[in-house]
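Subgroup meeting minutes
Present: P.N., E.W., G.H.
Scribe: E.W.

1. P.N. recapped why we're keeping a running log of single-chain structure predictions: easier to compare across weeks, and new members can see raw inputs and outputs side by side.
2. G.H. added today's entry (100 aa).
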Amino acid sequence: MKGALARSLAAAGAGLFAAGSVSQCDKSSDSGPRGPVFDPEALERGAQALREINKSANAKQVIELSKQQEITKQHEARRDEQKNAALAAQYAAVRTASQI
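Output recorded in log:
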């Protein structure tokens, strides 16, 4: 049951940011501003998944799992940022040395 809830949570989160969750306005219409239009279906799927999770006895574990996944993503982003900064510094040093 816990695996199904985690998959449901993951699917709901992915649906909120899926390419189809925001669509472009019809360009043939000249009235009103143009831009992205919100599609509420992804939000509804996410709300349904959260309701299912809240009904479960494993709700706390699912929420804790998603928190840990977010922390892991943040650590990976920080690590990548530090790696890129080191590469940029190395590139700048090589570029400076080659100009001398």
